[in-house]
Design goal:
The chain is an alpha/beta fold and 411 residues long. It is elongated and about 105 Å long. The protein contains 16 helices and eight strands. It folds into two domains: 2-142, no CATH class; 154-406, no CATH class. The strands form two sheets. Strands 3, 4, 5, 6, 7 and 8 form a six-stranded mixed sheet that branches. A two-stranded antiparallel ribbon has the order 1-2.
């Protein structure tokens, strides 16, 4: 008999707690309202209609105040005193919780959760909706710190730069367009990597890259001797204009991809290992020798490819004039491309950014975090004093090497 009563009671409780959606909401509202009244009584020093010597003020009606909680929006009536001095601690605690809640949404956004998913999570937790634009605007507090980081003074010397770009879809007044996210990484003379700049431009044209390089110099960028990038025409022209006389290394990985696309899949298999063999040469002289062999071999069957290699591949050989222990990491933009893959992993759930600012906010914050991790982590390159020499043409000629074709000249 007792078991039946217990079972019946459990079912009634389940019906009240689970089936009645407003039960918890009403229960919490009643308790919060009671807390507000008791808190106001302590502030006044007297209950309603109570007269005593300790009384410090008088009631003056109430005003409505909403709280967004996990069971939905709760409407409360907050007591008001005549002098307007009463402030409930309940709402101070709520403000801290609200800030934590907003920070959680910002964190979700930064971690790559789409605005639609964030909206759904808020709906499930709070029973109230929040627009995608509101979710994006919550991250606005990050802008101040992010802008300070992006405009920071560059007080170190950066012998090496790695430059690359990727594209993101951004909604504009003209519709959804693909815009370039351009990133510059510097390797400082202490051996640590650092992301020096992230900017968004319409494309990788000379003007946009030129603005970036000019801004970097204004922020104090100095000591650049060597730059590695792909061979995008706008980028190379901007480098020629702003880094005259600096060694330019064409990314070997990009060159290999271009080689495969020009030959086609079937033919590339026959020659790919020979191109890789050139890049694996122990020194410049051997690389040039292997290059000449491949050029001659391709001359009869693939004259166009043969001519292209003969004219362009030496821009991939600047790396031979770096110290031996720097070459493997500085022959390509792979270091930056790996980070770009992480950016892609986060941004692909967004798919289309609502505006340029939101794109820069998400990817810029990731760049800031990655840069700080690099700066405080392991040394990327061991930079000895006798290795940090001016890599200009004069020094190269002293070594008996002619690198004029791979030195950035004015465009």
């Amino acid at each position: 008999m007792t078991q039946r009563k217990d079972s019946s009671l459990a079912k009634e409780l389940q019906k009240v707690l689970l089936d009645d959606k407003d039960f918890l909401k009403e229960l919490i509202a009643e308790n919060l309202q009671s807390i507000l009244h008791k808190e106001f009584d302590r502030f006044i020093g007297a209950g309603p209609y109570e007269r005593n010597k300790e009384r410090r003020g008088y009631r003056n009606g109430s005003y409505p105040r909403s709280l967004i909680t996990r069971v939905g929006r709760i409407e409360l009536q907050v007591c008001r005193d005549r002098d307007g001095m009463f402030q409930s601690e309940l709402f101070h605690r709520y403000q801290r919780s609200e800030q934590a809640f907003m920070l959680s949404m910002i964190e979700m956004y930064i971690q790559g959760v789409s605005t639609r998913k964030v909206t759904h999570i808020v709906q499930e937790l709070c029973g109230v909706g929040i627009s995608k634009s509101q979710v994006s605007s919550l991250a606005g507090d990050l802008d101040k710190n992010l802008n300070q980081w992006r405009q920071r003074r560059l007080d170190k010397t950066y012998p090496y730069l790695v430059v690359d770009a990727r594209y993101e879809k951004i909604r504009t007044a003209a519709g959804v367009v693909s815009k370039a996210v351009m990133i510059v990484v510097g390797v400082a003379d202490c051996g640590h990597r650092e992301i020096l700049s992230i900017q968004i431009g319409d494309s990788e044209n000379e003007v946009d890259w030129g603005i970036i390089f000019k801004e970097l110099k204004e922020r104090g960028l100095s000591g650049v001797n060597y730059v590695v990038s792909d061979d995008h025409k706008g980028l190379v022209k901007a480098l020629q204009r702003h880094f005259q006389g600096v060694l330019w290394q064409r990314c070997q990985v990009h060159f290999i991809r271009n080689f495969i696309s020009k030959l086609g899949g079937k033919d590339s298999k026959n020659y790919l290992y020979k191109l890789q063999d050139i890049f694996n040469a122990p020194d410049l002289e051997e690389a040039l020798s292997r290059k000449n062999q491949l050029v001659e071999e391709l001359q009869s069957d693939k004259p166009y490819i043969s001519s292209w290699i003969d004219e362009d591949i030496e821009s991939c050989f600047s790396v031979y004039h770096l110290p031996d222990n720097h070459r493997r990491r500085m022959k390509s933009t792979n270091m930056l491309e790996r980070f770009n893959q992480e950016l892609k992993r986060r941004s692909r759930v967004i798919r289309i950014f609502p505006n340029e600012e939101s794109c820069l906010r998400l990817l810029g914050t990731m760049c800031m975090e990655q840069s700080e991790e690099w700066e405080t982590g392991r040394i990327y390159l061991t930079m000895k004093k006798d290795q940090i020499k001016e890599l200009n043409q004069e020094w190269i000629w002293q070594k008996g090497l002619n690198l004029a074709s791979a030195t950035l000249q004015p465009s």
